[in-house]
Design brief:
The structure holds two protein chains of two kinds. Chain A has 16 helices and two strands. Chain A is 72% helix and 1% strand. The radius of gyration of chain B is 22 Å and the shape is elongated. Chain B contains three helices and no strands. The mean pLDDT of chain B is 83. Classes of the chains: A mainly alpha, B mainly alpha.
């Protein structure tokens, strides 16, 4: 073979998913900021008629950030890092390349369909599973194609040992495949009602408590297998690679993996504490949620210890800053979740703003920080240009960190205030406050949250600008950086 | 014995079984490394040395080695 035809990693599919991650991140976070502002200033509900109301935009926000931004980030980082840890290029197999591109094409159709249908109010109404059945079928197809590409790459790999990140990506694939299928078992109302209903609107095949249980088995494990498992896969690859330090303990990474796999699947019923599910199942959900601290912290501490003796990099490299803070927020979030899952705490926390507070220190601090850091790391290698601006990354880091802190602190205070006020009774056992009393008290915290949203989106615009400039007009690199990503 | 009681026992027994399996796995990992049978920590280098033409940590496949030679 001629030397100029030397084999190289092929990032075409990774690049495509990088573009959609940036696009959906921007859209999803803008929507989030708007609905946060609507909570503080209700008149903002009437900007675009029925299409601008909180109830219409809230599912759009969650679906776009989960299935648009995060899942694009998962696919982008997978198609980038899987080639590298398996030491095999997608260019070596036309079949894998075709599957990857087909998967992207269908993904784009499904994501567009999701945005349009949710905006039109077409929804199954099951949280995080709002998409109607034709989209569900398309998603199953996309997921199967991802699995085909994944196992085909594994099949032709040169590196026989599967790096720990691959274990996590495989778990993401298998976990979501199983959960998605079971939770989205649904029948169009046309068939369920004997011809009266609609072909496009469906109802769940489960009912009552069973439906709730399956729904939260999915709902919580979507957090597990979309927001945790593939993000852990990312940090196990990108932090060692960017810092030049091998993972602190490979054995601990294996242990944490199996611990997480075993424990996570049982914790979903903590979403149904104090409801009609059997008491033993509620207790099981609580217990497993608390045990979940161990494998979660196993991975997070392993990441922090990977930086042992190299903490100077935290000041020298802003990407390390993003990843270390992501790992720290992962620890915070996985301690907070189990605390909320304790039944007595849950009696105060359930249905309050403390819950979105918890979700967002996880997703903004852990998931989005890790995805942005990973995409920054990939950019100089994919586009063969240095990162456009280090100063912009530094500024983005501090703006977004401030945003996350403002978000979760305001929601902690709001949530606990809300929970306490709902429960407060006078000496005769009468409730002391009506619902609107809590709304009045919470207004300043909702305003702080909206401000946090504005700050986070500002940071994301800086990220998008930096990425686009890196792709188009940054200094060209003559050779691929080994560890630290070059930046101007 | 009703179905709910049965479910309770099954859940308890499965928990015990999985806990034993997980702890067994921990013992296995550390013991096999102590005896010198396995070296898990070397796999951490897969992320660092990830060029397409770098030597795999585990390569038992002569075909891939041959391909790699050709591409040099």
């Amino acid at each position: 073979m001629q030397s100029n035809a030397a084999l190289e990693y092929d990032y075409s599919v990774a690049k495509l998913f990088t573009y959609t991650a940036i696009l959906f991140g921007l859209v999803g976070m803008l929507l989030g900021t708007l609905i946060a502002a609507q909570m503080a200033f209700p008149e903002l509900n009437y900007l675009f008629g029925q299409y601008g109301t909180f109830s219409r935009l809230r599912p759009l926000h969650t679906n776009v950030v989960i299935y648009g931004f995060t899942v694009s980030g998962v696919f982008a980082t997978f198609y980038y890092s899987a080639q590298r840890v398996l030491k095999v290029s997608m260019a070596e197999s036309k079949f894998i390349m075709f599957v990857g591109k087909l998967q992207f094409g269908l993904y784009l159709i499904a994501a567009t369909g999701m945005v349009v249908t949710l905006l039109l109010g077409i929804t199954t109404t099951k949280e995080y599973a709002q998409m109607e059945w034709p989209l569900d079928i398309l998603i199953v197809l996309i997921w199967v194609l991802w699995g085909v590409a994944m196992f085909a790459l594994i099949g032709i790999r040169r590196e026989k040992a599967l790096y720990i990140s691959m274990w996590y990506y495989i778990a993401c694939f298998l976990g979501v495949a199983m959960l998605y299928l079971f939770n989205n078992m649904e029948v169009p109302t046309y068939f369920a009602s004997g011809g009266i209903g609609s072909m496009w609107h469906s109802v769940s095949m489960y009912s009552g408590t069973n439906d709730a249980l399956v729904q939260w088995w999915w709902g919580h494990n979507a957090v597990a297998f979309v927001f945790t498992v593939p993000i852990v896969a990312m940090i196990y690859y990108f932090l060692p690679k960017e810092s030049g330090q091998a993972v602190y303990s490979y054995k601990l990474s294996l242990l944490s993996f199996w611990g997480l796999m075993f424990v996570y699947l049982w914790a979903g019923s903590h979403h149904l504490l104090w409801s009609t599910v059997p008491d033993w199942m509620q207790t099981m959900g609580s217990v497993f949620s608390v045990v979940l601290i161990l494998p979660s912290w196993g991975s997070a501490i392993n990441m922090l210890l990977t930086m042992k003796g190299e903490w100077n990099q935290l000041t020298e490299n802003p990407l390390i800053k993003f990843m270390v803070l992501a790992s720290t927020f992962y620890m915070l979030s996985t301690l907070e979740g189990p605390i909320q899952a304790i039944k007595s705490v849950n009696a105060i926390a359930h249905f309050t703003d403390w819950i979105p507070g918890h979700v967002h220190d996880g997703v903004l601090g852990w998931v989005a920080f890790m995805i942005m850091a990973a995409l920054f790391h990939m950019a100089p290698r994919m586009f063969k240009r240095e990162i456009y601006s280090r100063k912009l990354i530094e500024a983005q880091f501090w703006i977004q960190t401030t945003a996350v802190v403002l978000y979760f602190t305001s929601m902690w205070i709001a949530g606990i205030t809300q929970g306490m006020m709902w429960r407060a009774v006078d000496e005769y056992g009468n409730l002391m406050y009506s619902f609107i009393d809590t709304v009045t008290v919470l207004h300043p915290y909702y305003a702080i949250r909206a401000l946090a949203g504005v700050l986070y989106v500002t940071g994301f615009v800086m990220f998008a600008y930096n990425m686009i400039k890196t792709m188009t007009s940054s200094k060209v690199l003559t050779e691929e950086p080994q560890f630290k990503s070059p930046m101007a | 014995m009703g179905i709910r009681e049965l479910q309770g026992y099954a859940s308890f027994l499965m928990t015990i079984l999985f806990v034993v399996a997980l702890y067994g796995y921990i013992v296995y990992l550390y013991r096999s490394e102590k005896k010198g049978e396995k070296d898990y920590e070397k796999f951490g280098n897969i992320a660092l040395d990830d060029e397409i033409d770098s030597t795999p940590i585990n390569s038992s496949d002569p075909i891939s080695d041959e391909k790699k030679e050709r591409n040099k």
